[in-house]
Amino acid sequence: MDPAPPKPWLKPWLKPLPKPLPRSVSRSGALVTEPLGALLGSVPKSRPSWLTVVKTTVAATVAWVLARQLGDNVAVLFAPIVAILTLQASVYGSLATGLQLLFANLVGTVLAIGWVRLLGLTWWSLALGALAALVVARQVTNTPLARNQLTIAMIAVLVLAPVAKGYGQWRFADVAIGSVVGLVVAVVVPERPRLRRVREALETWAAASVTILLDMADELERRAGEPVMAALAQRHDWIAEARELTELSATAAAELAGAEETVRFNVGAGRHRQRVAALRDDQVFLVRVTLQVRSVSLAADRLYDRPGPVPALERATLTALLRALAVLLSDRIDGARPDDTALREALTAAVEDVHTVFPSAVAVLDSVSLLGRLDQLRQDIVGEDAEALIDPDTLPRS
Q1: Do 153 and 105 form a contact (C-beta atoms < 8 A)?
Q2: How far separated are the first and last CA of the chain, in Å rounded?
Q3: Which of 143, 167, 188 is the last residue of a domain?
């Protein structure tokens, strides 16, 4: 059982606080019944912009028209397909995708032409051809897009070559036309950086970081006096939440990378560069905060509600400090200047207090280590202006 009532300097943070809600989440959204909800939730939520839709339509049409002008090229297939697949939200993405598709389609076409001339087209030669394409794709490509396209290219040429005069030979021209048209459209009509989506991803990530701190405090408070978790495999509920920060950080990083690519290759997007740079600073800040939050969550999970001696750092003290950090982080996210004066005093008092439980520093090592992580999180939230709990230069040296 944890000792002592909470200290007076913790009173501002003893009551549960409301948890933040990301702006991109509705407060009254209906839930889809499981397991259908889980299935639908796993579908990527990213949608192309209307500009991308129009550009892709134009690129496919132009590629098909150009390919049809080439002599006996009557079975135009790859030109519009490659143009559609090449065109991405950014010029950089279009260039990377175009090169992958160009390589994959050329290799698949060469394999198909040689395969038909060597074995003809029967059900078993088609099966062997598909197997050969998959094996070659596995060895010479390193992305799912290129791997799938190589196989599709070979099968398409295998199936259509016997009935379309010169089909295999014209596929080289098709692929080149589709790639060039897709790249030209991407360069001539560049996308605008999708800054709103980047901000929403960062806001969701930040709100989750605040929520985890509050949930840790609430769960510690709720478990007070309950039986301990006998097995190390049992974890507090907040551990699963902390793991989800990794996915949120990856989503935000991907959105930000897309915006940076768009700005880098879009001459007209120069006015957005400063805003993208500011969003990158926000992302770096949240990476530091996330590392500290996860570190605190793991340390608290290992220290509390476990068999053995009660931690020197009282449960009520830790609960209050976590809520104080949540308030500080929320202020920083909202753009306010975080004031950590009271929190510094509370952390200092907490460090001094754990030494009154056990006079030996070794006996309170876990609690002091956890307090050190909390203080590091405080400093990361405050930023460059953060002050240490104590100035080492003011202390006497032995």
Answers
A1: yes
A2: 39
A3: 188
DSSP string, 233-273: T---HHHHHHHHHHHHHHHHHHHHHHHHHHHHT-GGGGGGH
Helix axes 315-333, 273-303, angle to 10 degrees: 170
Pair 248, 206 in one domain: yes
For residue 374, pLDDT over 80 is answered with yes
Question: What's the pTM?
Answer: 0.68
| Domain, as residue range, for 312 | 192-394
Tokens coding 330: 């929320």
Q: 245 with 178, same domain?
A: no
Q: How far is CA 182 from CA 143, 179, 267, 393, in A?
A: 19, 5, 18, 63
How many domains in the chain?
A: 2
Residues 309 and 257 in one domain: yes
In a domain, 35, yes or no: no
**Are 219 and 303 in a shared domain?**
yes
pLDDT digits (tens, 9 = 90+) for 18-67: 566 444 433 333 333 444 444 344 444 556 777 788 888 888 898 888 88
Give the span between the Cα atoms of 37 and 392, in whole angstroms: 55
Q: What angle do CA 207, 210, 214 make, to 5 degrees?
A: 135
